[in-house]
Specification:
Blueprint: E1 24-29, E2 34-41, E3 45-48, E4 55-58, E5 61-69, H1 71-92
Antiparallel strand pairs: 1-2, 2-5, 3-4
Length: 112
């Protein structure tokens, strides 16, 4: 008996078809899984330092999705992201460094 080919078929639940926007991600792990917390930055808020009572500005982050994956899946995720990043940059040019907002390789002549 020959083995039939298995073809993945991805289905997105109707309520999730539009996706969820996130502008940050945090990663943490336990021995059995990695957790990816996708979040959005909320407007700054006035607050007080819990130890000193000093006035501070809080930068709240709201988790919009938490995904837990087994450790071996991390390698597949990294390969998929790397391939997608390479394809994206080939089609659209280099992606600027998100943290600094500075394009590491800007197009055009170097600044004088």
């Amino acid at each position: 008996m020959t083995q039939q080919q298995v073809v993945p078929q991805f289905r997105t639940p109707e309520g999730q078809a539009a996706g969820t926007y996130a502008n940050g991600v945090g990663v943490w792990s336990t021995p059995s899984d990695f957790t990816l917390d996708f979040f959005v930055s909320l407007p700054p808020e006035a607050g007080q330092h819990p130890d000193t009572g000093e006035d501070i500005v809080l930068a709240p982050q709201q988790v919009v999705a938490r995904i837990k994956i087994p450790p071996p899946l991390v390698f597949q995720l990294m390969r998929n992201l790397s391939g997608a990043l390479e394809t994206h940059e080939q089609e659209h040019g280099p992606i600027p460094d998100f943290q600094s907002g500075v394009d590491p390789d800007p197009p055009g002549p170097p600044p004088e």
